[in-house]
Write a structure and sequence with these properties.
This protein is of the alpha+beta class and 731 residues long. It is built from 24 helices and 27 strands. The chain has a five-stranded antiparallel β-sheet with strand order 2-1-5-4-3. Strands 7-6-10-9-8 form a five-stranded antiparallel β-sheet. Strands 12-11-15-14-13 form a five-stranded antiparallel β-sheet. It is flat and about 115 Å long. Residues 247-319, 375-445 form the PAS domain.
């Protein structure tokens, strides 16, 4: 019995699909299409597509109109603004349909509502940007790694950057961070262990960042086939945590070492808390401390209690800060002087709920102040006769008194200085930091400060000094004036500058000697190889005429070696910058000279050399550097020649304005510039597997050319050859 088949009509299709005629009017459509684009008149047959589909984008209209001329299926994503103002995204698939005679009868269009997908994608991208979180995926089978856009942004690499496992690991900061990520990756591959850790990386721009690195392995048949995870920038958060921890550690250490007591008083609950330093400071045992306001009042000297309570009430009322000094009485009768500072804290309604403050023992300071007052006359004698510049300075910066040493350093008489302030003679660039420290002194945040600064001598010259400023307080602990000690270090600073200049000169000479060492190693090796090869030929040759020819070549090679040694002697004499040693050099002569130096090597490899350089062309250069550059290019062309063709070297030079362009071309193995272009002139970079490759020649070449105010560029194709374009200044 024959099997009956039934063709599903457009109307019955389970997807949103429609057919249009050549006028873009509906022939028929599926039920899902009707549901997606519901109109008051559900009969859309014969109506224009643009009347049925709301707010069709102008670009999409052009795509539909041009679809008749394209046989392939067209897929487009378009945003439509609906009549109610909302946005919808649709994915359209468009393909022409043909009649039985092959002519195009219209279009078949399918539609998918992708609004939710697009919105989810937009939300995901926004979340990634806010959280600075990216993803990564490593395929262990193909050894390829993918970084998301955010991950590349965190690493500060271009969006077209293609990472690998090795380069990815090398972004981690060398040391414990790189070792840890290596260990975590190994454990994931071997044991299937996930990781979620915080490490530091060094971005492509050299910036150190803290990141959260999370990784998960995927196994198939007991083998790790994939690693994937997230990568998040947590630098600000991590550095804040580290800074807070350091501040807390320093604060704890400072309060312990300085014996500073910290207290907190809850006004509503009448609860007073002391840190460990408060108990010995007030001479109270922890077991006897009741933890309330009365516990503190009981320690205050009776003569100071009323004043302290008034200051406390004023602080609670918000009239003034609680900054005071008072005496306390220890249980054994000992009297101590205490300095107190406190701040207030309010609730959401603005009511003060607690005070937090510090106490420290200033008994010695107070006693010292008393002793200082008693010895004031003695101080004045020392002040005047001191070998160090000294001054008494008022709080507004004016000089109250100066000694003879300071007058001598600054070139002013005592009378002239007393008519000035220290601001008048301070270098403008140093005034801000001096005033800032002085303000901290006035605010009671520090007791003294020291800094290096510059004064103007009366003659206008600069005087370098080390300034030490100490606050002088009266019996009540208030600052009355300052004592400034001014040590003239001008001679020391000038000597230091000379020392730095000498070190810079020494560094420059060391760089020149290092460059000389590279040239000697590279150039003499070529001459040595050439002489060794010619000597071997001489021993093997039987004919007299051939021997004489080889002997002549050996003589030429010896002369070239002697000339190179003489040029190297010139390099030794370069002790500063090479740019100051440039001379007029005939380009044709030096190219021919290098060709002659390696004639044996050229003959051995059957190299064809074509040199086209006008005899009159001269460049500004250093003979030894040019010899080294050309020798390196010649030997590289021979070393990396193709075994499939006769080696050819073509050298030509042209003059354009003030510059000479030397083109050095060969037909050798070539270089993959997409892979090696960025590191072509790097030190110890090699691009072919050759036993003599050291990775130093092109590095030296580039540096020598740039030392002569020139530049080098390269064009190359694999197995086709390489062109080095050298630009030098014309003589």
């Amino acid at each position: 019995m024959d099997t009956l088949t039934r063709t599903i009509t457009i109307e019955e299709a389970p997807i949103a699909i429609a057919t249009l005629d050549t006028n873009l009017c509906f022939i028929n459509c599926s039920t899902p299409w009707q549901q997606e684009f519901t109109t008051q008149d559900k009969n859309i047959i014969g109506k224009s597509f643009f009347d049925v589909v709301p707010s069709t984008p102008t670009l999409f209209r052009k795509i539909l109109e041009n679809s008749f001329s394209i046989d392939e299926n067209i897929v487009e994503e378009q945003k439509h603004i609906m009549p109610d103002g909302s946005n919808k995204w649709y994915q359209w698939s468009i393909k022409p349909w043909k009649d039985t005679d092959g002519t195009i009868g219209g279009l078949i269009i399918t539609c998918t509502n992708i609004t939710k997908i697009k919105r989810s994608k937009d939300l995901l991208i926004a979340a990634e940007n806010v959280a600075k979180m990216g993803g990564w995926d490593l395929d262990m089978i193909t050894n390829t790694i993918h970084w998301s856009r955010i991950t590349k942004q965190i690493h500060e690499v271009p969006l077209d950057y293609v990472p690998c496992l090795e380069t990815g690991i090398n972004f981690y900061k060398e040391g414990e961070h790189r070792e840890k990520i290596t260990e975590l990756i190994q454990n994931a591959i071997t044991n299937g262990e996930e990781w979620d850790t915080e490490l530091q990386i060094v971005t492509a721009r050299g910036k150190e960042l803290w990141v959260r690195a999370k990784g998960m392995p995927e196994f198939v048949n007991g083998k790790c086939v994939r690693l994937y995870g997230i990568f998040q920038d947590i630098d600000k958060k991590k550095k804040a945590e580290i800074k807070n921890a350091q501040i807390k550690e320093r604060l704890d250490l400072a309060t312990e070492v300085a014996n500073i007591g910290i207290w907190e008083y809850n006004l509503h609950k009448d609860e007073l808390e002391w840190n460990d330093e408060m108990f010995p400071l007030f001479g109270v045992k922890r077991k006897d401390f009741k933890g309330n306001f009365e516990s503190w009042k009981a320690t205050v000297h009776p003569d100071d209690l009323e004043r302290c309570l008034q200051e406390f009430d004023m602080a609670v009322s918000g009239i003034k800060d609680f900054k005071t000094e008072f005496r306390i009485v220890h249980p054994d009768g000992t009297i101590k002087h205490i300095k107190a500072n406190a701040g207030i804290f309010k609730d959401d309604e603005g009511k003060i709920i607690k005070m937090v403050g510090t106490n420290w023992d200033i008994t010695e300071v107070v006693n010292t102040q008393l002793k200082l007052n008693k010895s004031e006359e003695s101080f004045k004698g020392s002040f005047k006769s001191s070998a160090v510049g000294m001054a008494l300075v008022a709080k507004d910066g004016s000089w109250l008194d100066v000694n003879d040493t300071l007058c001598l350093s600054l070139g002013y008489s005592r009378k002239e200085l007393l008519q000035l302030s220290f601001q008048d003679i301070t270098h403008p660039q140093d005034l801000k930091k001096d005033l800032s420290q002085l303000q901290r002194l006035l605010d009671g945040k520090i007791n003294s400060y020291q800094l290096e600064k510059r004064y103007f001598h009366k003659k206008g010259t600069i005087v370098y000094v080390v300034l030490t400023v100490t606050a002088v307080k009266d019996i009540e602990g208030n600052i009355s004036h300052f004592i400034s000690q001014v040590v003239d270090i001008t001679a020391k600073i000038e000597a230091q500058k000379k020392s730095e200049e000498f070190l810079e000169l020494t560094k420059s000479q060391n760089d020149s000697l290092l460059n000389f060492a590279h040239i000697v190693s590279h150039n003499l090796r070529s001459h040595s190889s050439n002489l060794s090869m010619l000597s071997a030929y001489l021993l093997e040759e039987q004919g007299e005429s051939e021997k004489k020819e080889i002997e002549a070549m050996i003589m030429n090679a010896s002369e070239s070696l002697n000339e190179t040694v003489m040029h190297l002697n010139e390099v030794v004499q370069i002790t500063t910058e090479a740019k100051g040693q440039l001379q007029d050099v005939n380009l044709n002569h030096i190219v021919k000279s290098v060709e002659k130096n390696i004639s044996a090597l050229l003959n051995q490899k059957n190299v064809e050399c074509h040199i086209s350089i006008d005899q009159s062309i001269k460049v500004k250069g250093i003979h030894a550097y040019l010899d080294s550059v050309l020798l390196n290019l010649f030997t590289n062309s021979i070393k990396y020649s193709s075994p499939n063709r006769i080696p050819k070297i073509m050298i030509e030079a042209t003059k354009t304005g003030k510059f000479i362009t030397l083109n050095f071309r060969d037909n050798g193995l070539g270089i993959n510039l997409e892979r090696h272009g960025k590191k072509l002139f790097g030190m110890y970079k090699t691009f072919h597997e050759h036993e003599d490759s050291k990775g130093i020649g092109l590095f030296i070449t580039k540096n020598q050319i740039e030392a002569m105010n020139g530049k080098i560029e390269v064009e190359s194709a694999v197995d086709k050859g390489t062109l080095f374009r050298i630009t030098l200044v014309a003589a």
